[in-house]
Each structure stands twice: as structure tokens, then as C-alpha cells.
Amino acid sequence: MDKARIGIINVTGYAGVELARLLSQHPQVVLTSVTGRSAASQRLAEVFPHLIGTDLVIEDKLGDVDLALVAMPHKESSREVLPLLDRGIKVVDLSADFRLKDDSEYTNWYGIAHPAPQLLQKAVYGLTELYRAQIAQTQLVANPGCYPTGAILALAPAVKRGLIKADIVIDSKSGISGAGRSISLKGHYPEANEDTTAYALEGHRHLPEIVQELGLLQPSQPPRITFVPHLVPMTRGILTTCYAPLTSKLTTDKKGKEELKHIYRDFYKDESFVKVLDSPPHTKHTSGSNLCLIHPTIDTRTGMLVVISCIDNLIKGAAGQAVQNMNLMLGLPETTGLEAIAVYP
Ligand SMILES: NC(=O)c1ccc[n+]([C@@H]2O[C@H](COP(=O)([O-])OP(=O)(O)OC[C@H]3O[C@@H](n4cnc5c(N)ncnc54)[C@H](OP(=O)(O)O)[C@@H]3O)[C@@H](O)[C@H]2O)c1
Fold first, then answer.
1. Residue 168: alpha-carbon gap to chain centroid
2. 9, 11, 14, 97: which to mutate for ligand 1, most atoms within 8 A of CB?
3. Which of 28, 41, 31 is nearest to 8 (CA)?
4. Cα-Cα-Cα-Cα dihedral of 296, 302, 303, 304, to 10°?
5. Residue 181 near ligand 1, beta carbon < 6 Å
6. For the whole model, what pTM was predicted?
7. Angle between the N-to-C axes of helices 146-160 and 207-217, in degrees from 0 to 180, rounded to the nearest 10
8. In this model, does residue 1 exceed pLDDT 90?
9. What domains are defined for the chain?
10. What is the pLDDT of residues 173-191, one digit of tens each?
């Protein structure tokens, strides 16, 4: 059988170029078309010399493909996605445009009416570990945000098994590439280097996505989430620490801690990319890989659940997860092209 032809819309952003790197090494598909406004007509390997070996030229418009990975900023993305769907092309959208199920929530957080609200129920939220069967059947996957990926995977077993009460605190620290490749003051070297700061205290746009997905895991107890993101001076990686009071399902002693670990290991026992560790993970342990590493524990003094997760925001938080979803949509083994282990140190 011929290999599926894959296209990338917006290869000139960080998520797009990471997709190009993963797909150029993928053994079961062929990257045939890439677009990028600022570099149209240039050779991909000239614009990004680490991709030496590909002879693709960056185009204005996507050529004929079987599946497209769209890595545009939100609002711009749906403009690209809708015509692709009309052409019968399968799409993984890396933006936030199809992640929220409720179009009024989209309007609240993104400030415009959704251009195709009828698609919000049809699009499948692309957190592979939770929606594997639906992803395999759909034409449109809404790839999760980077912060939600680390936070939802960290909390899903505890929420699903009713181990915690509704009040959850999520504290995340992200590398600067999470803000994208477009130039901004906060990513400017003298501003970001040797600096750490919290931001979006009035509400980050990834919050409704986390609330939506944790709410679906435990509909009887809608979560009340305080989410505070931070920027830290590293290029990639997200470290997330989640805190929540335990219900009476677990004891707050050594036995409870062991049981908690057992529940997490059991929840993720069949997952290739989610691993439960006995000690807190480092962002360096996931850099360049599609892994999410999780360490769940209990603060025995306060009876609080504490769960720490690490991902690479550009891999499991973006391009790697998109390829994982693409594999499922094409009927390929989920791990194909994603076997690379992290770069350490
Ligand atoms: N960075 C991450 O860690 C991450 C993680 C998960 C999801 N995502 C999502 O993935 C998408 C891409 O993110 P990114 O981080 O790769 O962004 P990025 O590096 O900032 O890429 C943005 C690129 O989009 C192009 N662009 C900007 N405005 C445009 C417009 N109006 N029309 C056409 N092109 C435009 C620009 O390319 P040209 O200069 O060529 O015009 C720019 O380089 C976003 O929706 C983002 O939320 C990112």
C-alpha cells in the first residue's frame, strides 16, 4: 500500500517545524507539502538547516495530501481547516480553535463567534490516552494545548477514581518556546534569561480546556481550578505540580501513598508515552521525546494530593501528540516515528 501523503500548514512556527522534523523520520508516511507565509518558495532545508536531507520547497498553498497537520495561531487556524474538511482531508489542528465543546466558552475566551460551531461537537479532543477510539474514527482532531496535556494527564486518574475534592491548584512552569516563534518582548533574551515570572493570573486561555476535560471525567463533581502558569528560562519543557485535598478513599499515610501509586500505574499500564515514576521527574527527562512523566504522592502532614508531571511542550504538548493522533487516524501503530528517547542532559 502507498504511504499516506502528509502536509503541514505553517511550517515556519515552532510547532510546524517540529512536525517537519518528526515526519521526515517517520517510516510509514511521506511529508509531501509544507506551507509558510514568510518563507514561501524557499527550500525547507535552507530555512531550517537542521532539516538537511529534505528537498521540499515551502509553498503558498497546501498541495494534494491525505492528512494535514495545521499549526497556525488560533482564529487563523479555523480559516485553513474548514476548506480542508470540505475537500475530505483528515485534519489534526494544533490550535485552540476546535478544543472547546461550548461555542459560548470559545467566544468568552477568544473574543469572537466561532466560525463553525457545528464542528465543535464533532471534533475529537486529541488527548490520545483518553480518546483513542474516537480519534481513530474522526476526520478532525483538536490537538490539546501544552499546559492542558501535562495537567490533565497528571490529574486524570485521581479525578476519574474520585480520589480528590473539587478544589484543585495547578502550578505550571513553561520554557519560552511555548510562546511561539513570533517575536515578543517577553521572549526577548535580556527579558527571559535568568528570569522567572507568573502570568495570566486573571485567567489563562488553557483553563477552560482543563476544566472541560476534568469535568467530563467526573461529571458529578465539576472541578474548581486555580491555574497559574509561569515562564522559566529554558527553551522547552513544562513542569506542572498539581495540588488537591483528598477524599476519604485514600488514607494519608504511607499505605495511602502506595495505593495512590498503584492506582496511577494501573490507569496508565497500557500507555507507551505516560510513565509513573517513584521520584519527581525533571523537564530534561522528556526533552525531545513524546513522554509524559508523572510522580503522584501525598503530603501526609496536610492530606493533600501532590502530582508532578513533565512534558516537552513541543513534542507531547504539540507535534509529538499530533503525530500520535495522525498514526491512529491512518490506522498505523500509535508509536510509529515517535520512539526517540529524550536528549539528556
Ligand atoms: N509552541 C508550543 O509549545 C505549542 C504547543 C501546543 C500548541 N501550540 C499551538 O500551535 C500553533 C502554532 O504555535 P507555534 O508555537 O508554532 O507558533 P509560532 O511559532 O508563533 O508560529 C506562529 C507562526 O504563524 C505564522 N502566522 C502568524 N500569524 C499569522 C497569520 N495571521 N496568518 C498566517 N500565518 C501567521 C507566522 O509564520 P510566518 O512568519 O511564516 O507568517 C509565525 O511564525 C498555535 O495555535 C499554538 O497555540 C503551540
1. 20
2. 14
3. 31
4. -40
5. yes
6. 0.97
7. 20
8. no
9. 4-122 (3.40.50.720), 147-313 (3.30.360.10)
10. 999 999 999 999 999 999 9
